[in-house]
Amino acid sequence: MAEHHFHLKADWPGGRNSEGYIDAGNLKTKISIPPEMDGPGVGTNPDEMLLGAAATCYIITLAAMIERAKLPLQEMSLESEGIVDVTNGVFTYKKIIHRPTVSLTREASEANYELLKKLVEKAEKSCMISRAIQGNVELELQANIL
Q1: Do the Cβ atoms of 45 and 87 come closer than 8 Å?
Q2: Contact call for residues 111 and 99 (beta carbons, < 8 A)
Q3: Contact 119, 62 (CB under 8 A)
Q4: Distance between CA atoms of residues 33 and 20, nearest Å
């Protein structure tokens, strides 16, 4: 069994509407509460980072599956949306919607497209971040296969 350790250092001067800074290797950025939650909106925030983690995990997992299956990929892109519910002042990350667009080359067969459809679904269930938030955040997939 292998374990991978990831580290993050955060500096926060104090107070809800302060601006902080995180350093997690290649991720170095200012942080604050987003304007949608009455914060200063400087740098990024936990809501964007959770969405970013889920989205990048999904697209990288899908890319690896497509490569292993030797599908003739032409291009792939992803738009993702995070929905946060606020009820009685309690913020809850409710849902993440992934909208991948994947196209194969002209040489792709019907069998290639059938496999691609399966992989688009499987990647969501296989992604480490999706598995980590499963049961807490609803995950939805709206794929566009060209």
Answers
A1: no
A2: no
A3: yes
A4: 10
Please tell me the distance from the alpha carbon of residue 134 to that of residue 146, in angstroms, as a whole number: 28
Residues 66-76 have a mean pLDDT of 98
Lookup: tokens for 94: 């409710």
Distance of CA 65 to the CA centre of its chain: 17
DSSP tag of 106:
T
**Residue 89's pLDDT band (boundaries 50, 70, 90)?**
confident
DSSP conformation class of 28: E
State how far the Cα of 41 lies from the Cα of 38, in Å rounded to an integer: 8
Q: What are phi and psi of 42, to 5 degrees?
A: -95, 130
pTM check: above 0.85: yes
